[in-house]
Task: structure prediction
Amino acid sequence: MRSFSTCLTVQVGLLAALLALTRPSVAQSLETFSAPGASETYPEAINEFGRVVGYYDDGSRHLHGFVRTAFGATTTFDAPSVGDGYGTEARVINATGQIAGSVSGLSAGDFVMRGFVRDALGRFTEFDAGPAAMRTKPQAINAEGQIAGVYLDANFITHGFVRSAHGLITTFDAPVDFLWGIREIRPNGDVIGVGSRSTFGFYGFVRDRSGTFTTFDAPEVSPNTGGVFCGHCGGTFSTAANAAGRTVGYYGDAAHLIRGFIRRANGTFANLDIPGSPRTLPEAINLDGDVAGEYTDPAAPLVHGFLLKDAALESFDVPAAYGLTVTGIGRESEVIGYYPDGSGSTFGFIRRARPTCRHFSERER
Result:
């Protein structure tokens, strides 16, 4: 399936002069896919070797995990404790092929959720973040096999956790009010995430491995501007981070625009705005600093995808889609996500910068 990209000018904070340079539109391929037997397919993450993980609905509201190689071979799986009413959600994958996610369902009449890690050979380890954990949600995994995420206790209070490669779990709480989610665990053990204040304002944070927190907000954020993640929510909403410590996300400014940002590891910020768009939403960043996300076209209520790479910004769409959601970006700038087609089905997509080579095949192990 073909799509067309438009080269735009990007305005990115202090880098505006550099990023005003544009490049010719490059050859690309856009592939759509479904997991076997799926009515809805949700890719969530992609690793350095182009393997995509996610989950799918089989049409009966049961969820299953999948892993898809760079050549399209797909393996589906369920965590061991899966049963009637349970679901397996694969969320993240590291360079070694370890996959982390959650398995959920009813236990003694209560809805419970456990974390899992699946190794490259398909072996599972399930875990809870602690005795008080009713719902354990792994949300990040690094190359060393450390997992970070959140868990809910019986009072539905959210806490954070870090699980070592050997299974040792350390829990922590938000530096300000409430913990929202974890975006990355770096090789050195730093955890990057997002929290929320009781005033409905989001903020970003970095927790180093000693437990010290640094919180941050975009410099131009306006606490009175809603529309950040939810209609009445404001603040700085971190969406993704990379192993080098860069964080992306968006915030509301005084002009009531939703603006993208890039935060460097040294704490400095740059804005990432699609010219003329009221909403720029960076959603993913790879190790090289390439960024992908979505933006809204003010001329029509449509959501488009974008890729920022090598100081140029390209826009893309999935033909016949009713909008799209970007969820990840690979080392080769492959952008993944999902989209609805208007018939009630949801499909995954992979947008590559050049046509896919299919001279070789790969079998999932």
User: Anything to note?
Assistant: Residues 37-173 form one domain. The first helix runs from residue 16 to 19. Helices lie at 16-19. The chain has a mean pLDDT of 88.
